[in-house]
Amino acid sequence: MAFAQLSKVRLEYLPQGHGPERVVFLHGFQASARIWQVVQEALPADRYTSVAINNRGAGGSDAPPDEADFSNEHIAADAHELAVSLGWSDFTLVGHSLGGATAAQFAVDHPELLKGLVLLDPADPDGRPIPGGEAGIDAVIDRAMAARRTQAESGDAGDGVDATGAGLPPEVLRQLAADMRAAPERRLRGSMRSMFNIRIGDRLKSLPMPVLLAAGDIDELIPLSNMLATWGKLPKGSGLHVWHGVGHSPNMDCPLELAALLRSFIETTIPARRAAGAAGPRG
Q: In the prediction, which pLDDT does 163 show?
């Protein structure tokens, strides 16, 4: 792991490789950077340089004191500041679950930095209306935190880590589960509230970079129908890939297949789109 001192927090991140293609990975709600480890290692080190960020409150990253410090906007801003501190531009951004909404936020705020955007089983960029306004959101969050405490007492990590985990070595899976159990509740409360309140869907259609949405068809946290609705909000021509028999976390269950999909998108789709754009319309 490596660390970067940003203006507001110190972030931990997992670097991998030394190649010219650059990729930034964002994890989701309860997870940590470890959820990307096998995917990163599957990308050829001489062709790819990647970083998987531990969001504030995850792994060894700082955990600010207030729930409001864990909004989608704050986490996207941290990722932007880290990319700038690394001197990165023209990279591919990949976000999973709630990290998909964070990646979308980054993309609409800083499109000039991205060559491609990949949303993996993403949360809806227009959140979810909850009856009763903020009081209703408070009640939903309270129930979710109570369920999490009960789940932790049983030894489960939750949030898709209770899927098959077939693609992760046991030690990586153990470390990831430990990271998830250690997540401070204020981080989860703040990020969940932000997930309900995000409203950026109308800004996605104008994204200039190639976009790919990838998902598992038996996701129980975010149903495929919801993700297809998100795909409909993306720019015309955005890619869609669905794995059959895979749940909420393809980065756990089929990481090698996900790495191959990323390579195809980065090495074939993006150059083809750029070449088509450079050629322009024919008269």
A: 47
Q: Tell me the C-alpha distance between 164 and 51, whole Å.
A: 25
Determine the Cα–Cα distance for residues 28 and 134; give it in Å rounded to an integer.
Answer: 22
**53 — pLDDT class (breaks 50, 70, 90):** very high
Domain 2-276: which CATH number of 3.40.50.720, 3.30.300.130, 3.40.50.1820, 2.40.50.140: 3.40.50.1820
Q: Where are the beta strands (DSSP E) in 121-262?
A: 211-216, 239-243
Domain ranges, ordered by start, for the chain: 2-276
What is the residue type of 48? Y
Can you tell me the distance from the alpha carbon of 172 to that of 180, in angstroms, rounded to the nearest whole number? Answer: 12
Counting every residue written for the chain, the total comes to 283
Chain segment 245-262, per-residue pLDDT in tens: 999 999 999 999 999 999
**Entry pTM:** 0.94
Structure tokens at 65: 């004191």
Question: In the numeric block, which tokens belong to residue 126?
Answer: 């227009």
Place of tokens 């995850």: 58
Q: DSSP letter at 122?
A: P
